[in-house]
Amino acid sequence: MRLPFELNESYGFIHDKRLPRKREPHESKALEIEMGRVKKWLKLLGLSSQPTKRSWDDKAVQVKVRKRVFKGIPEKIRGKVWCKLLNLEQVMKAEEGKYKKMLELARNWSTEARQIDKDVNRQFRDHIFYRERYSDMQRSLFNVLVAYSMYNSEV
């Protein structure tokens, strides 16, 4: 079965026409550089076969991390890096149950839920995750946004 659209890029957006498969020379070089950066980041994060021996609290490591952030965090590991930079493991332990509480408050008291529902439906209509109304991904996005609207009412 052939789909009436082309899904041929890593971000999940739908295109009418297929993107070119062959890489240009400059794209191949950029990919090489990106893979080198991934290896360095994995080592720094302690996820490689030869992890760094120093702690992220070490001043030299902090300088290295700062330089690498300004060069750009590779897409493949961006989530892991930001989790480490923001110390999310510790924050999530401290805030355990907060999301469920905010979601429950939003279901009962949110004045923004109707507008958020409209906005979620209009957003990213050409993305594979959000094109279908009330899909799992649309509902997940809605839940996060209404919970956040209760957590930070100034937004």
UniProtKB/TrEMBL annotation:
Single GO MF descriptor: GTPase activator activity
InterPro entries: Rab-GAP-TBC_dom, Rab-GAP_TBC_sf, Rab_GAP_TBC_domain
Domain Rab-GAP TBC: 72-155
PANTHER family assigned: RAB GTPASE-ACTIVATING PROTEIN 1-LIKE, RAB-GAP TBC DOMAIN-CONTAINING PROTEIN
Protein's name according to its UniProt entry: Rab-GAP TBC domain-containing protein
Originating species: Anopheles maculatus
